Amino acid sequence: MEATTFVLFGATGDLARRKIYPALYNLFLDHKLHHSFSVIGLGRREVADEAFQAMVERSIRDFSRREVNDSASVRGFLKAFRYNVLDVGHTEDYLKLLQRVEQLEADMGGSPNRMFYLSVGPEFFEPIALNIKESGLGAAKGWKRLVIEKPFGHDLQSAQELNLKLSEAFTEDEIFRIDHYLGKPMVQELDVFQQTNPVLHALWNNRYIANVQITAGETVGVEERAGYYDHVGALRDMFQNHMLQLLMMLAIRLPKDSTADEVRFKKKEVMESLEPLEEADVQFNVIRGQYTAGTIEGKPALGYTAEPGIPADSQNDTFIAARLQIDDPFWKGVPFYIRTGKRMKEKSTRIVIEFKEPLKQNSSAAEDDIPNLLVFEISPNEGITLQLKARDPQHKGKFKAMHIDFHTSSIEVPEAYENLIYDALHGDPSFFAHWNEVELSWKWVQPILNAFAKNSVPLYHYAAGTFGPAESDQLLAENGHHWWLDS
Ligand code: NAD
Question: What is the ipTM of this complex?
Fold first, then answer.
């Protein structure tokens, strides 16, 4: 990687402090940043460079996955950080920023690159991109790139409009849309694991797989984000982006040593093969849920509509479960069940693949409860477990579940943001959402948004601290399946 200026909008925000600075620090420790790498943090308040560096130091002390105890390397890291005042709407601030960037670049020499990272609310994406273009900031000597966070649009139309605006200032190749689930090591492992292990590769199709279950459960409620969340809900906040990305990553079949373009082309194909849902069919394939009062980890929890800032008559979805079908030769007939929600029993993101059991009808009911499962634990634990059925040596004639386990320690493994920032700096878009994927995801979700807006599907309730409404279990029972690992 050549000398690069990392221009960070929203430098005083939560995401920057919790994720971006710690990620940069760990990349620095691993010698993965160029020696002429510099960061210009931007915010509305006047902050001196030294005060900004002190804030970055606090952030890495609080949030870095590795201990911060070597003061020489901390000083070396902080040297790269500068701060500039910038209000998103003030055109003259961009011109001052350009002067500062050019000063830094003059010191670097060569043809430095510019990476613009937008860690700000989505309402600012468009004005920032256009101001970058008009101020001349976009005319880098080397490459220029734009990194943006979710949410990308509020529905299909707003996403299309936003993309059109961004494309006036940046080409698709220059836009890196972060979906931080794609940076998680286990998610990056999904296709490789299947592709490089002939045992799994041979089984990865509708002949052997009964169904796929993707769960992302949170135990927290709306926290301080009531105003935001009540207009968004689980469908927009989690399902349209993270959950559909997990489905794509699991379902793609890639040739060996695929390029980034091939990865993204294959993901697009998966989305194009998803059987579309008509608005009238939403009620049969999607479960909309909202939590009521309950108990989480032994403590009482309020119901959603009793949370501060949430209207008493809110119909917002805090839980979604859906049944999806991919109409291609590998997956036809294999239901993909996806669920995500707040105030669930367990904080966990995982994918469970249930294998078919051809001899099932010959075995006893108890044995039927021990399926062959392949489990990808994505967060907070990271690991892979294969559950097989084996003879129980202590009870003659009986069977038990045998587990082959592999788990990693979170200290050793780079965080999602480390992987993603590194890839963006190196121009590798494999694990970023291409516009095609974003648009197709919104297209698939739009009939559900319409049905929810019209209130034409039921809103089911579930007690906080459970795995969602009973109707979500029913969705699987209709196909003779049930959610595994709910305990
Ligand atoms: P935040 O509210 O903590 O920070 C927003 C930043 O924007 C602050 O630095 C603020 O000073 C700056 N800002 C606001 N108005 C501005 C203006 N007019 N001019 C210049 N700067 C301005 O938000 P956050 O949690 O850091 O999230 C940033 C973005 O990342 C949001 O789009 C959010 O949806 C997304 N995101 C956040 C997380 C997370 O974990 N926090 C996760 C995924 C996505």
Answer: 0.96
